[in-house]
Amino acid sequence: MNHNNQDMFSPLTLKNGVELKNRLVMAPMTHTSSNPDGTVSDEEVRYYAHRSKGVSMVITATTYVTPNGMGFPNQFAADRDDMVPSLRKLAKGIQDEGAKAILQIFHGGKLCPPALVPDGDVVSASDIPSDREGAAIPRPLEEAEIEEIIEAFGETTRRAIEAGFDGVEIHGANGYLIQQFFSPYSNRREDRFGGSLEKRMTFPLKVIDKVQSVVAEHGNEDFIVGYRFSPEEPETPGITMKETLHLVDVLADKNLDYLHVSLINFFSNPRRGVDDLTKTRIHHLLETINNRVPLIGVGSIYTAEDARKAFETGIPLLALGRELIIDPDWVQKVAEGRDDEIITEIDKAKQEELVIPNQLWKNIVNTPGWFPGV
Ligand SMILES: Cc1cc2nc3c(=O)[nH]c(=O)nc-3n(C[C@H](O)[C@H](O)[C@H](O)COP(=O)(O)O)c2cc1C
């Protein structure tokens, strides 16, 4: 092995004692190709299996915890007990190839298309619509409904345990409900779930507490709980790097097994909210975390050299998203010193060979600029 790759291929022991065989993780990616009844389709299981040999952990596409949290057409479900066999198939498909299987769990909040949620009743922290074209004005959740959604995160965690997953990742990123509560832009509440920065953290922290209490009750010590966040919002008011560093400081003491930042570019700098805008977001996050919990970095890592550069920052774990769709054998190639065989652009003739579900494939080839090569 190239000795420069040691950072990438050394094992890492998480706080709960679970050993990850290396530092490379598959990023969660929605594939919108599930069956109409909410079960995971066979083509989706094949897609995961094809990408689970090299990485230590596969974080699945996000799944919803309540019917009014469904965020995408043909998204698979985890909001009811009869989905457990489908979830089991997914976990096994990943684990049989040697990776840990982590179920990403979410509620879409105001980003749910009205057609996908019961009675078109789109909900959020407050009535601030997203700026997506045609976005509905969301109905602010009643306090009792918020408690029900927190419960539902716990119930979905129990299903993940029953289905044999190695862990769950709480999806607090990318503008969905958990982030909507943390955001001063989306959350204009004046009750215990909104107002000050501390109060805006109430919902995310309660979700974490619930998930952890369910794990303590139903799981074993090996069950992994991670949390994903987006560091900044462009809006004013909106989440700033300063607020995120405060959140991360609190999260680092929550006994989570890992934190996971959501970034398009690993090496990006903060927009605002810290004195030194010349240092990367990753740098600021690592400084605040100060080795209390492993952080997963991500964003536009395509070549082995990109990854080696990323590990030079001291990041403990690195997620690969689009690159593992483009080249499912990326990790094995780097491990075997075959860097020059890595493919970094999607080959539009190779859907079948790459084992990419139909609808995901259509989304990729019909969205110019999203994937290199399209
Ligand atoms: C097809 C696709 C679907 C995605 N779905 C999710 C998702 O379900 N949950 C999530 O947290 N991030 C999702 N993301 C974001 C990725 O996890 C990742 O952060 C982003 O693609 C940047 O990493 P990359 O440059 O390695 O692709 C998605 C990205 C892509 C390309």
Number of helices: 14
Biggest β-sheet strands, sense, barrel: 8 strands, parallel, barrel
CATH class: Alpha Beta
Bound molecules: flavin mononucleotide
- Strand sequence of the main sheet, in spatial order? 3-4-5-8-9-10-11-12
The ordered H/E elements are HEEEHEHEEEHEHHHEHEHEHEHHHH
Write down how many β-strands occur, each being a DSSP E stretch of 2 or more residues. Answer: 12
> Which descriptor suits the 3D outline?
globular
Number of domains: 1
Content of β-strand: 5-15%
Organism: Gracilibacillus pellucidus
Protein name: NADH-dependent flavin oxidoreductase
Task: Throw out a few tags for this protein.
12 strands, TIM Barrel, binds flavin mononucleotide
What does this structure look like?
The chain has 374 residues and is an alpha/beta fold. The protein has one domain (3-365): TIM Barrel (Alpha-Beta Barrel), CATH 3.20.20.70. It is built from 14 helices and 12 strands. The protein has helices at 6-9, 42-49, 84-95, 143-162, 177-182, 197-200, 202-218, 241-251, 281-289, 304-311, 322-326, 330-335, 351-354, 358-365; strands at residues 12-13, 19-20, 24-26, 57-64, 100-106, 123-124, 139-140, 167-172, 224-229, 258-261, 295-298, 317-320. The strands form 3 sheets. Strands 3-4-5-8-9-10-11-12 form an 8-stranded parallel beta barrel, surrounded by 6 helices. Helix 2 runs parallel beside helix 3, helix 4 (143-162) runs parallel beside helix 7 and helix 8 (241-251) runs parallel beside helix 9. It is globular and about 55 Å long. The model has no long low-confidence stretch (mean pLDDT 97). The structure holds flavin mononucleotide (FMN). Flavin mononucleotide (FMN) binds at residues 27-30, 61-62, 104, 171, 173-174, 228, 262, 264, 298-301, 320-323. It comes from Gracilibacillus pellucidus. This is NADH-dependent flavin oxidoreductase.
